[in-house]
Design brief:
heterodimer; A: 288 residues; mainly alpha; Cytochrome Bc1 Complex, Chain D, domain 2; two-stranded antiparallel sheet; B: mainly alpha; Cytochrome Bc1 Complex, Chain C; 2 domains; 61% helix; globular
Amino acid sequence: MGIKFMKTLIVGATLALGGLGVANVATASDAGGTHKLEHQKWGFNGMFGTYDRAAMQRGYQVYREVCASCHALEHLSFRHLADKGAPFYNADTPNPNDNDVVKAFAKDWSIEAIDQDTGDIIDRPGIPADKFPLIFPNAIAAAASNGGAIPPDLSLITKSRTGGADYLYAILTGYHEAPHDFHVADGTYYNTAFDGNQIKMAAPLSDELIEYSPYMVAGEHGAEPHEVAAPVATTDQMARDIVEFLTWAGDPHMEARKRIGLATFLYLFIFALLLFLTYKTVWRNVKH
Amino acid sequence: MSGPSTYEPKYAAAKWMDKRLPIIRMGVDFMGFPSPRNLNYWYAFGGILSLCLMSQILTGIILAMHYTPHVDMAFDSVQRIRRDVPFGWLLQSMHAVGASMFFLAVYIHMFRGLFYGSYKAPRELLWIIGCAIYLAMMATGFLGYTLPWGQMSFWGATVITGFFGAIPFVGESLQQWLLGGYSVGNPTLQRFFSLHYLLPFVIAALVALHVWAVHHVGQNNPIGIDVKTKEDTLPFHPFYTMKDGFAIAVFLMIFALFVFYLPDALGHADNYQRADPMKTPPHIVPEWYFLPFYAILRAVPDKLLGIILMFGAIVVLFVLPWLDTAKVRSMRFRPTTRRFFYIFLFMCFILGWCGGNSPDDLAFTFGHKNVMVDGHEVSEAIGMTFKTLSRIGTIYYFGFFLFLLPVLGWIEKTKKLPDSITKAIHDGEA
């Protein structure tokens, strides 16, 4: 019986993995990349992977000071930055709307609103409940200001590209001198990771383009808040940090998902074991 | 098969109830349904599929409370579900992964029926109702994939509804009628949402017929011979509730693996981009469970013929009970047919592989040859294209049903069948 069950299980698993493998090969093979993506080491990969808070916070600074001149974060509100598991979560102010850091960030943006007394359209400083504003009023304006290419929304950028975080990192660090026999069209830049190797986005990062602010570790469990020195903003460092931030932006509940997943597995394992023992007990006198 | 009811109400309230509405009797008879005692784990997928349907309906009802079927809001509302609705990320992931798991289970269930001859008399209608369920599942899956309104949603819907346009004479009008316009747009999304909510309940009704039919004719079993005595059977509960229960728990672990750790593995990255009618993705591919049919569609150069073949691939399942001429049900006793069945299974995977790739790309490379391009000598790979491979797969697919099964039924020398299930168990043959 045991052997028979193992056989069934192995055949079943092979069939399942075979089917899903076909599915995976199918989705991976149409990535259309001209070269292989180099896999980077990310702390958020794997079954127990988590986000690096400090890197996400630096990543937000890169977004604010570099990317935000063209790219929007359509699906994010400022308050999301202070949710549990988010870069600026503070256990002392669990309600994201009360988070001082995020309040300050929001205030830094100007939001178009309707004056409640006159009905006029006005600009007011943002509050945590506001969405990140669009950078261009519409797609035509975005294209017109960027040589015909619309800067994509960044809140799902790692999810919407095959290769995800590795791909984004490869794009940001893929600006090189074009080979001699390669003609780079006007208004485009040579990039080794981009499909066709010509991208309309100029290299957004360069060494020490910004200066990282020192980062405050919130005083959790009664400890004093303390400052941590930030690393030098090299291109590679900024690329890693923005990828960390944008991966979170695309998948903000990843840590909770993996945590609950582990508990679910533990539960299912015990449940399956009990069912198996019950099944064996019920069938003990039955020849089959 | 189910025979006269043996239920005897013990308590006064149960007796009162039994005289007026014998619903307790129905439940007790249902749970005590005599099942062949030699069912293996492949027979657990009926239960697994019921669970899949319930899970899809429950998560779907809650998702519908938060989803907005409008071209300007659908994509954002899905993001809102995944970000702001409490546990919305879990519900959405369970529903999307659940569709894949549902199809995984239904394919195993169908291959099991094919292997053990569960479509043969007196189970022809049981099989046909099953095929109808599968067809309704395909429609539901396709409609549901449109709802997130990503790039693959939009372009997948455009390609699939385009099939109807290829039908002679009425095609164009039919297509416009289905879409509610000249192209996929807001009327399309709204009707797809409406139908996506309706069809699961049609499936549930078909499942009720399916279960009714199986309770009437009795379950088939791995040796495919009829139940002869009470000795050959066991009551469904507790014997199979516990055995199936264990199988369900194992299945749920595979389900959980995808929901919690690989939520995007079965989807396409392009569907995280908002639908853009002005931007065609370089490769439009359907969900993995449609890939074999997509390969059949693209195996022939003519659009209409491709569509006929693709639908034919499903129609052939409906008439299978009359295509297979063999008297013996289980392939355990049909050594030759069994080999061709394994090749058939393999070919389905091959077709799936072809469906996910561009027809003109090479599936296998045999070597290189030098060709002249613009006065330069360039090395070019030669080999078998996916189109050729999908043609081989398509020919085998139809050949298996239309030629091999009818002919093998006549000429194959089958192994000797055991006298009864009980005897087979005793001899170690079950």
